[in-house]
Amino acid sequence: MRDILFLLPPGFLDNDRREFCPECAELWGFLSYYPAIREALDIRYEKIAHPREGLVALLGEGRWNCPTLVLAADAPHQDFPEIAVANGRAHLGSARAIARYYARRFGTPVPRGS
Questions:
Q1: Is the peptide bond before 51 cis (omega within 30 degrees of 0)?
Q2: Is 99 domain-assigned?
Q3: Residue 105: closest CA among 80, 87, 74
Q4: In a domain, 47, yes or no
Q5: Contact 26, 98 (CB under 8 A)
Q6: What is the pLDDT of residues 36-81, one digit of tens each?
Q7: Which residues face 42 on adjacent strands?
Q8: Edge to edge, what strands does the sheet with 68-70 contain?
Q9: What pTM does this model have?
Q10: How many domains does the chain contain in total?
Q11: pLDDT band at residue 109 under the 50/70/90 scheme
């Protein structure tokens, strides 16, 4: 099983205009720096509208933040304080938390200001 990264698409219609999610874009930048991590992920796009079905299916009702990283069952996470658990699944719900987790797990640099 692989970690699953839920993102919003690079462009979507909201507030009567085309927008993008800055946190999702930040993660795409991180993944372009570290393509080996990108290749090891299952990346799934969610719609802007709630409920976001893929997230709800894994984490339960009311869980639809993007970006969210749902960790594989065998992923190390016991000593990382930012990890939350819902429906028995460990997950992280922000771009910076995800980058800090991968810094600890794989030795990538830590985001500035962390």
A1: yes
A2: yes
A3: 80
A4: yes
A5: no
A6: 999 999 999 999 999 999 999 999 999 999 999 999 999 987 789 9
A7: 4
A8: 42-45, 4-7, 68-70, 89-92, 84-86
A9: 0.94
A10: 1
A11: very high
